[in-house]
Amino acid sequence: MRLYQVSMRYHLVLLVFVFLTGLLSTQVVKAQDPLFSQYYAAPLYLNPALTGGFTGRYRVSAIYRDQWRSPLEQAISTFGAGLDLRFDMQGKALAGDAAAVGIQFVTDQAGSLNLSTNSISLSGAFHKSLDIGNRQYLSAGFQFSAFQRNILYKNLTFQDQFNGVDDFTGSTAEDLPANNYGFGDISFGLNYAVSIHSSLNLYLGATAHHLTQPEISFYAKDEDEDQQEVSNSPLYRKYGFHAGLTTDLSENVKISPRTYFTSQGSHLSLSLGNVFILEPSSTDEFNFHLGAWISLVRDFDNAIQPNAVGLLAGMGFGNLLVGLSYDFNIRDIINYQTGQGSFEISITYSGDYEDEGGLCPTF
Question: Which of 22, 199, 249, 306 has the highest CB neighbour count under 10 A?
Fold first, then answer.
């Protein structure tokens, strides 16, 4: 029996709330970190509080993004993989609560210089049940990350290498720092999830990444103290907010509108979209996911401009979810007619599944 009877008007109010929350967020948003369009398919990267945010015992997830393959000599590519484990707490005082741990690996490579950033992150989260029926959860999570950055100097060419005839074959007097270094970092996140009734679930989350704002200049690690003193390239703190809901349109169709925005230094990024979940049969574990979104960014004139339109096609079968998406660039950043988009593929598997509703949507 349903605990709440929610009218269609209440459904619409929640839909408008999610939209306006994301829209108002554009007044304060930026991002240096790689961003995934299927952000819920990389839960440990999105928010440490989502570690263990599912109704199973373990979850394995992987996502790959390929961006601007045609305009650039070498595409910008990002790969992430994660594993998280959920443990139900024992005892009367902790009934319904859960703890979770997770590990995540992310690698990002950009350009012909192979500028790469690799990270391994350990996260932990606690999910506190807020009612007897375990229909509301408040989650908090921490994440500790170790980063390694590398650049390939052999593809660099300087003016003093010109041989005076036809090629740049000489040596250079440029003072280049070591091309490899590492640093540590900390992130924190919160998430609230409520199942208003069996067909309406609401999610709200907030994050603060790079709390230590580490220095990421290669020269900061140089042996030359003069170079260290002039280095000033902090990895700015990144604030994020994500919200969404899942509700029934009919017996076989659900909708899942969502928004995600980040603010990092002077950069802004906002995504507004919706996913339709089609279930051919209520007794079958097979379903389709069809979605679309628009992303907005702050341009060089500090104006909020549309950046890309994305499309998603996904399939779920039992505990396995596979998603494919493509972002079509709608800004003339580079004078190429095609190839400015971004392709993503994600795979998620949840083990020992219990059909009680999750703490975050998919994709």
Answer: 22
Question: Of 281, 205, 280, whose CA–CA distance to 245 is shortest?
Answer: 205
Compute the Cα dihedral for 279, 280, 284, 289 and give only its sign: negative
What DSSP character marks residue 133? T
Nearby residues of 322 by Cβ (< 8 Å), 6 or more positions away: 314, 315, 316, 345, 346, 347
Helix H or strand E encompassing 198: none
What residue has token string 């950043």?
333
Annotated domain spans of the chain? 8-143+187-351
Pair of tokens at residue 122: 């350990």
How many whole angstroms separate alpha carbon 272 and alpha carbon 261?
A: 9
According to CATH, the superfamily of the domain at 8-143+187-351 is monomeric porin ompg (2.40.160.40)
For 36, the token pair is 């995934």
Tokens of residue 1, six digits: 């029996």
The pLDDT tens digits for 206-221 are 999 999 999 888 887 7
d(CA 65, CA 36): 7
Better pLDDT: 1 or 41? 41
| Whole-Å CA distances, 327 to 81, 175, 231, 276, 359 | 21, 40, 35, 18, 26
Contact 258, 270 (CB under 8 A): no
Q: What is the DSSP string of 191-255?
A: EEEEEEETTEEEEEEEEEE-TT--B--GGGG-S-HHHHHH---B---EEEEEEEEEEESSSSEEE
What is the structure's pLDDT at 127? 96
pLDDT mean over 327-338: 68
Pair of tokens at residue 28: 């304060």
Q: Where are the beta strands (DSSP E) in 211-356?
A: 238-248, 253-264, 267-278, 286-298, 304-317, 320-329, 342-351
Which residues contact residue 187 at a Cβ distance below 8 angstroms, ignoring those fewer than 6 apart?
Answer: 48, 121, 142, 143, 145, 207, 208, 209, 210, 211
Amino acid 47 reads N
Q: What's the confidence (pLDDT) of residue 10? A: 37
Residue 71, classed as helix, strand or coil, is coil
Average pLDDT over residues 255-269: 93
Q: Rounded to an integer, what distance in angstroms lies between the CA atom of residue 341 and that of residue 198?
A: 38
